[in-house]
Amino acid sequence: MMVRSVLLLLGVGLWAPVSNSFQFMKGWKMPTHDPYAEEVKDKFGDKKLVVLTGTSSGLGRKTAMALLRTGEYHVIGAVRDVDKMEAVAEVDGFDMNNFTPMYCELNSFDSVREFCKKVDEFRLSKPIDRLICNAGVYQPTLPYAKWSVDNHEQTMQINYLSHFLMISILMKSMLDSPDPRVIMVGSVTGNDNTVGGGGVYPIADLHELDGFKAGFKNPVAMADGYGFIGAKAYKDSKLCLMMMANLLHTKYHKLTGISFSSMYPGCIAESPLFREKREWFRTYFPIFMKFITGGFVGEHEAGQRLFQVAHDPRCKKSGVYWSWNGGPREGRGTEALEKGGQISGGGGAGGGWDSIFENDQSRKVLDVETAMDLFHTSSMITQADWPSLKQVVSPCPTLKVIGAVTQGMVKREELKRMREMGRPGINEDMPLKVTKFKKAVIVTDRVASFTLKNTIGRVARFLGRRLLGRVPETALNGSFHTENAEAENKKSIEAAPTTEESLTTLNTNQELLNAELIAAKVKEDRKTVQIVDREDEALFSQIYEKESAGAMPSPSGNSTSVDSPLVHGSY
């Protein structure tokens, strides 16, 4: 039976198209034992697990209701008043078997961490399928900032910073979900390419994030570091959420499969979000939005829209800012009266399920450099510890072994390169900092390299010279700038001969040196002999002159010449 199964798998792999040859293996995992499997099945069944903040009122309340009515979700509601939440759940008829309220005070980072810990304990081994960052406050009439438990401005911490921290903690619990989504509730006020976002002062703008860079603690109340304006604090927080959805999409989507998106459900003019506005505003603002601008959306419809982003298969797309209907229509007065203000429009009511579209985002929302600064400063403020993720690779055991061996070789070679070559032109006098672990790796590598170099390496070098030949001159030449002395040294080292060639050259050089020494010695001896010869010549000359004085003249009239070689000092 086992052999038949293996043959079947091989057959599938052989007959699969080339482009999808390994796709059938993508879901394979090493067999593991899940001690919570039965308990998870009893608690959740086949339902998806949702974490939703701000479920006791407004948009979160209606969204939780829509999720539970499908019978496909178990919702964990993060609220700061559990008693109130239980009363709301009873009034709205929540299925309490599939709804779990949990305490979470977004004014406190410690409370957020404790909430995430309870979520992990509650879910056991069940992955989180949806994380919906909905909770928010709006305090536009405040003449001064209010501070959180952590001494940060409340609007920014509740709306953005605490959600940022929550995502960093719970993201690891979403990795095993087949369709994980993180959804952030944005706002038209954070998108300044619209009338609502760019035409009403104050405008959302983080500037250089000087407030965040300074630590964002009392008395620093704004992200940009300037004076506090309650309405701007809200708009800035929504801008931060929308920017972070884009950045997390870029940073983590391909590595994790998690979809990161933001959405604007429309202006919920009757929402408790405006509970801190004056009474006249709460009375007339909904009328204005219904019959003048056409941008009014009721709580129920807004909840349906947020539910759609969590539920609709089309909304699993990452890096999107979701909106509905495309913009308030002209001639809306009569239609608004006929429909009680429920007309189609960008953020306005109506349009239904198929009116959803991918909305444009402003230059500020799409600013990648500011978004990176926002990520780093937010991590500093919240002390968020983001997971270190590795790219998903093929589950093939052979490839895993090859990958592990290759990875080890790469690390050793990189250490060797850094140790031996340094960083030319960059801190050349600064020694390379090597940890104890890296030192152990270097020592091990030296031992292993020496052994391999003198065994397999010798054969490999011999074959390499015979089969591969020398590096072409065109590959060594062609630089448009003169190489420095260090580069010349490296070049000479790279062109160094083999051990056999080095020994031959050394012997030859030694013989030449010996010959030069002998020649020098002979030359020195010759100089010494010539000095002695001059003394002898002077002595023989004196003897010759004395003898010549008494000698008989020759027949030719010349004195007898002594043409002796000794006279000339030659041998």
What does this molecule look like?
It is a single chain. This protein has 571 residues and is α/β, with parallel strands linked by helices. The protein has 20 helices and 8 strands. The chain has helices spanning 2-15, 37-44, 58-70, 82-92, 109-123, 154-170, 195-198, 210-213, 230-256, 279-293, 299-311, 332-338, 368-382, 397-421, 436-453, 456-467, 473-476, 485-494, 499-549, 565-568; strands at residues 48-53, 73-79, 99-103, 130-133, 181-185, 259-263, 321-324, 356-358. It has an 8-stranded mixed beta sheet with strand order 3-2-1-4-5-6-7-8, sandwiched between helices. Helix 5 runs parallel beside helix 6, helix 9 crosses helix 13 (368-382) and helix 10 packs across helix 12. The longest helix has 51 residues, at 499-549. The radius of gyration is 43 Å and the shape is elongated.
Percent helix range: 40-55%
Span between N and C termini?
A: 107 Å
N-to-C SSE series?
HHEHEHEHEHEHHHEHHEHEHHHHHHHH
DSSP, total strands: 8
Net shape: elongated
Helix segment count? 20
Instruction: Classify the beta-strand content into a percent band.
Output: 5-15%
Structural class: alpha/beta
Kindly provide the radius of gyration, computed on alpha-carbon positions and rounded to a whole number of angstroms.
43 Å
Summarize the main sheet: 8 strands, mixed
Spatial sequence of strands, sheet with the most strands: 3-2-1-4-5-6-7-8
> Would you tell me the overall average pLDDT?
77
List the uncertain runs. 1-10, 12-23, 326-346, 552-571
